[in-house]
Amino acid sequence: MMTGLSVEQLNRWNDNGYLIIPNALSPSTIDSLLNETRQMLSSFPIQDHPMTKFSTGESSSHIGDDYFLQSGDKVRYFFEEDAFSKSGELAKPKERAINKIGHYIHELNPYFREATFSQLHRDIAQAFGFIDPRVLQSMVICKQPEIGGAVPPHQDSTFLYTDPPSAVGFWIALEDATAENGCLSFANGSHRRTPVESRFVRKPEGGTSFESVAGSSWPQNLQIEKPKEEESYELGEVQAGTLVLIHGNLLHKSERNLSQKRRLIYTFHVIEGDNQHQYDQRNWLQPPKSGFSRLYN
Ligand code: FE2
User: How far is the CA of 156 from the centre of ligand 1 (A)?
Assistant: First the structure.
């Protein structure tokens, strides 16, 4: 018996490519995740961060690439682009300078682990038809006051490509997300009109790039429609505790946060791990030795 989603919710998911579930996480869970985030932001050793070291002779973007590419089984910290002054100095205290923390929080932090591998999330994956769902990455995205960066329109399967595509984002508001502080917006139904045409890969010589998808651009069992000349976006304003599910082919984006209100969220992604889906060996994110984490126990 599937209890994760109602028929009505599943219909909305299929039509829209995203689904907003208010009050999915309890206030006490949200509190504990906020508390853990506070601890992480205040305790990480900023002097170890590559972006705070400027040595001559080595390109800082390349150091940044390695720091990013090796973060799949670690908890690492990534700055807001606008956290630095023109001369390259950090212009904010570190707690207000970090854009995101990733990408293995779902394994390395016990509170986030518990919140990720929950019965609700298992039930939802089951309702979506996942056979062997794997949690492959997680992030706390801070979207800081005054300097919170925008995220241009994209499809998550570009970054987490399987052949055929299978990624689903689980996105949890830890604080209220509104138009003022840069909430998500969605091109309703665009998952059925927009093939995954590029994927984010490691370059053999180091660093990353986007490449054309050679495999399938569409998930299995998706009702495909003609593309629109232009997609329009609708705001997804949500309160803390809301779970938003995002189809890997859906176009979505968010604006900058110039307000005084932080917009803190936790997100993790799931892909299909059965033998009908191939994880791309050139993807920027590669599995740890133990493989990507099973969502079902
Ligand atoms: Fe996304």
Answer: 5
User: How much distance in Å is there from the Cα of 4 to the middle of ligand 1?
Assistant: 22
Kindly report, residue by residue over 197-207, the tens digit of the pLDDT: 999 999 998 88
How far out from the chain centre does Cα 244 lie? 11
> If you measure from the C-alpha of residue 253 to the centroid of ligand 1, how many angstroms do you get, rounded to a whole number?
7
How far, in Å, from the CA of 236 to the mean position of ligand 1? Answer: 13
How does residue 40 score in pLDDT terms, banded at 50, 70 and 90? Answer: very high
CA of 239 to the centre of ligand 1 (A): 19
Provide mean pLDDT across the span 147-155: 95
Q: Separation of 57 CA from ligand 1 center, angstroms?
A: 34
CA of 154 to the centre of ligand 1 (A): 6
Whether CATH 3.90.940.10 fits 7-294: no
Domain chopping of the chain, boundaries: 7-294
pTM for the whole structure: 0.95
**pLDDT tens per residue across span 242-282:** 999 999 999 999 999 999 999 999 999 999 999 999 998 99
Residue 136 Cα to ligand 1 midpoint, Å, equals 14
